[in-house]
Design goal:
This protein has a single domain (10-239), classed as 3-Layer(aba) Sandwich (Carbamate kinase), CATH 3.40.1160.10. Helices cover 37% and strands 18% of the residues. The protein is built from eight helices and nine strands. It has a nine-stranded mixed sheet with strand order 4-3-5-2-1-6-8-9-7, with helices on both faces. The mean pLDDT is 92.
């Protein structure tokens, strides 16, 4: 049986912190993180170079507490630390599968991970290592969606893979509207004008202006990441 045709050489996967919770109310579901690690490992074995930007909403969401009165900058830095915790957990899950993984942080935490340096990150990818990028951009007021767009552009990714809990991009919220229609493809401008809430506007504009395609897909379905590497019909492709 022939190997499937792989669509991409290098990808950046954006994972939300909530994706690690599974059915839990808080924290990391061991079964979920093991499944995600297994799928990332399978993709790497297809010859795809994989970088991952991970959020921290399962542990701490700075913007939420800022709305309740906490200083926004303090809250955002706490959120960055939460992403480092998730990144270390994912690294451990990958290494349990005998994968080589490196955590690189936008803020300096030398005792637990490397500093993010673009050329070093690219070198890790070229050597077949999975790179987990933590702490967002290292700046308050910027989301991990924006960090994902920035890092994908910096490392020369072929596509930004946005993992969600729905099938892709819909014309309205599928959780509120049972008749919402799923787009196969949609333009960045339509996403912005219609406020389709794919990612925050800054992230979408960065993708658009740097000609970086964005694929939105449902990560809760088993093997969805692997299928997204080989099947153009998985989820929604957002392009210019």
């Amino acid at each position: 049986m022939s190997e499937p045709r792989v669509l991409y050489r290098r990808v950046l996967l954006k994972l939300s912190g909530e994706a690690l919770m599974g059915e839990l109310d808080y924290g990391i579901d061991p079964a979920v993180i093991k499944r995600i690690a297994a799928e990332v490992s399978e993709v790497r074995k297809l010859g795809v170079e994989v970088a991952i930007v991970i959020g921290g909403g399962n542990i701490f969401r700075g913007a939420g507490l800022a709305g309740a009165g906490m200083d926004r900058v303090t809250g955002d830095y706490m959120g960055m630390l939460a992403t480092v915790m998730n990144a270390l957990a994912l690294q451990d899950a990958l290494e349990s599968l005998n994968e080589y993984a490196r955590v690189m942080s936008a803020i300096q935490i030398h005792d637990v991970c490397e500093d993010y340096i673009r050329r070093r990150a690219v070198r890790h990818l070229e050597k077949g290592r999975i790179v987990v990028l933590a702490a967002g951009t290292g700046n308050p007021f910027f989301t991990t969606d924006t960090a994902a767009s920035l890092r994908a552009i910096e490392i020369g990714a072929d596509v930004l893979m946005k993992a969600t809990k729905v099938g892709g991009v819909y014309d309205s919220d599928p959780k509120k509207n049972s008749t919402a229609s799923l787009y196969d493809t949609v333009s960045f401008d339509k996403v912005l004008i219609d406020k389709l809430n794919v990612m925050d506007a800054t992230a979408v504009v960065m993708c658009r202006d740097n000609h970086l395609p964005l694929r939105v897909f449902d990560m809760t379905q088993k093997h969805s990441l692997v299928r997204a590497m080989t099947d153009e019909n998985v989820g929604t492709l957002v392009t210019a």
